[in-house]
Structure formats: C-alpha cells, structure tokens
Amino acid sequence: MVTMSRAxxxxxxxxxxxxxxxxxxxxxLLASELGVSAPSVSAMVRRLEDGGLLQRxxxxxxxxxxxGERAALRVVRRHRLxxxxxxxxxxxxxxxxxxxxxxLEHALSERLEDRIAAALGHPTHDPHGDxxxxxxxxxxxxxxxxxxxxxxxxxxxxxxxxxxxxxALRYLGELGVFPGVVVDVEEQEPFGGxxxxxxxxxxxxxxxxxxxxxxxxxxxxx
Length: 222
Description:
The protein is α+β, with helices and mostly antiparallel strands. It has helices spanning 6-20, 27-34, 38-50, 66-90, 97-104, 110-119, 166-175, 208-211; strands at 54-56, 62-64, 145-146, 155-161, 182-188, 195-199, 202-206, 214-220. The protein has a six-stranded antiparallel sheet. Helix 1 crosses helix 2, helix 1 crosses helix 4 and helix 2 (27-34) packs across helix 3 (38-50).
C-alpha cells in the first residue's frame, strides 16, 4: 500500500501527463519533468511498482496500472477543478492558476472538491481547455492536432492550450488565443521561421514553440 503523499501524487500526475502526450515514460524524462534527480525517480518508481500503481511496459518505459491511472485521475481532477475555480471565482489570470492549483490540490478533501464542482456547475474543461475527469466513469484525455500542423489558408478553432509554460500562456492570452477562438492560419515562413496567424482581425507571427502549444481542429479548409 502506497501512502498518497504530495510526492506520490506529483509523480502519478507527471506520469499520466507524459503518457498522454504520447511520449514513452522513462526515468530520465520523469526527472526532467519533475526537476528531481535520477536516483530520486528510481526510488519512487520502485515504491510505485511495489504498491501496484506502476509497471514496466518494456525494459525502459513505464506505465500506470489500472489502480495507478485511477489515482492519477483523482489528482488531475482536483487540479483542473481548482484552476477553474481560481479563474472563474477569483479572477486569477489563466497563466497563474496552474502554479496556484499545484499548491492547493494536495490539501483538497473529496467533500470540498464536490462542493467546488457543484458551485461551478460541474464544468467539463478548465481554463486552458483541458478536460476535467468526472468523479466516476470513463475519461477521454486525447489531444487534438497542434496549430503547427494546420494547413495554410485554413480556419482553426482552438480547443486547448498547454499550460506547461506560464510565460507562453500569458503571451498567447495577450494575443487573444484562448479555447473557443477561431484563428486564420496564414503563411509559414521558410527555414524554421514563424507561422503567421490572424486573431480577431490582427495579424501575428508565432514561432514553433508557441504553435506546438495550441491545439484544436480545422473548421474551414484553405
């Protein structure tokens, strides 16, 4: 039996996020994701394996067991509900809610979690467009296509913006790039140059690191 400490929850959530970004979950990647040493990751991985929350998919990659996935989803749900609460009820900017929710998610009881969900009207997505896992039942995490893959000349509806980089979130917010916004995808500059997009009539160049953070779907082909 693994004690659900703050560290344990952070690891489960990190493993969940890495896996659902489509990357192999390795100890090296986890160390980078969490900003901890490789020996620390190895020790926690052994603990999670012994507790039945984690297993090895092959000699290098790790994956959550069914119990591990459920435990990770409980943390993800609390985190995304808190982000939504902070943004809607306290007007915390969308580029700040992630860090605040990181601090609060470990102390939130199930009873308060349910009260927050009810007060918010049981939201399905957080301010960044990330789906909020339900209390019970299936959850679909799947990421839609990134803006950097959208064809020139199309109209692209944003449904999700990665919250991994708060400075990038702040900048995209200043440009008006939020979930639900439709952008016009214009030309791509050659040799790794920026992609030009038009947001609410204003034209902006977005470099690759930014266009890879914005996800959505083509609603009108070029």
